[in-house]
Amino acid sequence: MSRLTRGYRFLAIFVAAFTVLQLAAVMSRYYVADALVARPAQVTLGIVYPDDGVRVRDNRIESRRVRLNILPGCEGTELFVLLISAVLAFPASWRAKARGLAAGLTLAFALNQLRVVWLYAVVRDQPGAFELVHGFIAPTALVVALGAYFWLWSGRASRRGA
Amino acid sequence: MTPSPVAGRAFALVAGYAAGGAVAYLGREQLLAALLPAIGWIVDGLLPAGMARTGLGMVLGDGQGLVALDAALTRPLQARAGLVPAGEVLHVTTLAAYAVQHVALIYAVLAAWPVRTIGTRAALLSVGLPGVAAATLLDIPFVLAGLAHELLLDAGATDAASRALAVYYEFIQRGGRPGLAIAVSLAICLPFAPTRPRKNCRRSNK
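ok -> C-alpha cells follow
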C-alpha cells in the first residue's frame, strides 16, 4: 500500500470513528461533565486553591470568589474522542494502540483538569481575559498538545512496526 | 545530538499553532467580515421553511464577540403553545472565537506536515486559506441555522424544523469543531505527502 493510500485510509477511518463516537456522545444526551470534569476538578482546585472553599454541584463549580458552569460542549470530551479516533485509525499493532490510548487518555484527562484550573484562575484573577482563554486558547491549545502527543506516539509506533 | 524529525514536527505543530492562532486572533474581525456574506448565503439555504434572515453581523455579548443572526417568520408557525404570528423574530448567536479556532488548528497541522522543499511548504500554506474558509463555512452558518432548527423543535414546531440540522449543530457545538478542522487540514496535506524515492529496478530479460 502506498504512503498516499495509507494517508487517505487513516483520514477515512479517523473521520468515520470521530463521527460515530461524537454522534453517540451527542445523541445519548448523557451529560458526562459531572463525572469526567466537575467532580475531579473539585479535588484539583482544592489542592491549587485550598482557601477558596471550592464546591461542586452537578456541573457547577462554586467557591467564595468564582462560579463556573460547565455547559454542554465545554466538557472537553472531544479530546478523548479525537485521541481514540486517531489511535484507532493509525496502522499499528493492537498492543501499541492500547499503550497509546492508556497514556493518551490519561494525558487528555490531565489536560482537561488543567483547562478547568486555568479557567477558574482566569475568572478569579483576570476576568477580562475570559473570552480569549475560554473561546480560543483553551479549546485549541489542548487539541494541539494532544496532537503533539499523537505525533510522537505514531512516530514511535511506526518505527517499532517497521 | 540532533533532535529527531518526529520531535521537530511536534515542535512545528505547536509553533504553527501559536503563530497561526496569534495572527487569526488579531485579525478575527477582518476574517469574519470577509466570510460574512458567504455565511449569510449558506444560512439562507439552511433556515427552516417559513423563516427569512433579517440580520447577520458581529455583536458584543457578556464581553465576548458573537456572530448574531436574526431570522423572522414569514408566515404563522404552529408551535406546541399555539400559533406564532408572522413577523416574530428569532435571535441566535455563536462565539466569534470559534472561527479563529479553525485557523489555529489547520495552520498548526500545515506547519508541521513534512514536505521536501520551501516551495511546497508555501503552496501548502496558501491552500490553507480556502481550507480555513471551507471549515468555517461548514461550521458557523450550520451552527446558527441549526440552533434555529433546534429552538423550533424544542418549541414543538416539528413540521418546520429539520432534526438532521439540529443534530449537526449539536455535533459541531459539543466538540465536533476540532475534528472538522483536523479532517480539513489532513485533506489539504495528503496530496502534498512526500513520496519515498524509488529504488532503481533492474529488469532482466532472460
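Chain B touches chain A through 45 residues (CB under 8 Å).
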